[in-house]
Amino acid sequence: SQTIHQWPATLVQPVGSPLSLECTVEGTSNPNLYWYRQAAGRGLQLLFYSVGIGQISSEVPQNLSASRPQDRQFILSSKKLLLSDSGFYLCAWSRESGNQPQHFGDGTRLSIL
Amino acid sequence: AQKVTQAQTEISVVEKEDVTLDCVYETRDTTYYLFWYKQPPSGELVFLIRRNSFDEQNEISGRYSWNFQKSTSSFNFTITASQVVDSAVYFCALSHGSGNTGKLIFGQGTTLQVKP
Q1: What is the pLDDT of residues A101-113, one digit of tens each?
Q2: In Å, what is the CA distance from B9 to each residue of B5, B39, B90, B108?
Q3: C-alpha distances in Å from residue B10, one per residue of B47, B91, B108, B114
Q4: Which of A38, B53, B96, B113 has its CA 20 to 30 A from that of B29?
């Protein structure tokens, strides 16, 4: 069966510090991968998605970036965090063919001080 | 443009009541897919159902049922005999029918509180 791991679960970072959130998927190959952000009490905003190694599409301009160094690894990064980067970050995967359900990790609660 | 609207921000019911969560979507695609997800207080999103635009049959899974009506662009979700464990945020989502990106457009979510 497929599993998705996302860490850390919670993170408190000062403004201006770097960020690295990691997500890995097991039990499947060539998955589509996604990063979402959920602000408190709001819906999900798609940040990045990837259909293959090294292929990253950005949905919104921001100071975040994503990378996919391996088939089942997806990393969300920032060089300098802003207060507005606070939120709940969710990684998800789906089978490579379109319109398959996305399956989500447990999320990372990021607080910027 | 594609859009998903969940007009009900919060719903509160007493245990054993039936409750319907509304979802209205907008799309110009002739082929598309609709989804419902549940987000319990722990935070992870749990996939509940996927429906394609060519299948308007209603679906029932235990206490859950879904009513898809293309004529009104709605995909409503009903929980029968609600339980406290149903308390969560529920999201409706829409995806494109073509390509393999699998991108989803989510509604803003409906927070359901089931009181004992």
Answers
A1: 999 999 999 999 9
A2: 10, 14, 10, 8
A3: 20, 12, 11, 11
A4: A38
Chain A residues lying within 8 Å of B37, measured CB to CB: 104
For residues A48 and A79, give the distance between their C-alpha atoms in angstroms, rounded to a whole number: 17
Q: Has residue B102 got a pLDDT over 80?
A: no
* Omega of the bond leading into A31 within 30 degrees of 0 (cis): no
Say whether residue B43 is in contact with chain A using an 8 A CB cutoff: yes
Q: Residues for chain A: how many in total?
A: 113
Interface test with B, best of A11, A44, A51 (most B CBs within 10 A): A44
Count other Cβ atoms within 10 Å, centred on residue B27: 19
Find, among B1, B31, B25, B19, the residue nearest to B77 by Cα: B19
Of residues B10 and B54, the one with the higher pLDDT is B10
Extract the tokens encoding B25: 């979507």
**Which phi and psi angles does A36 have, rounded to 5°?**
-120, 155
- A31 C-beta neighbours (distance < 10 Å), count: 25
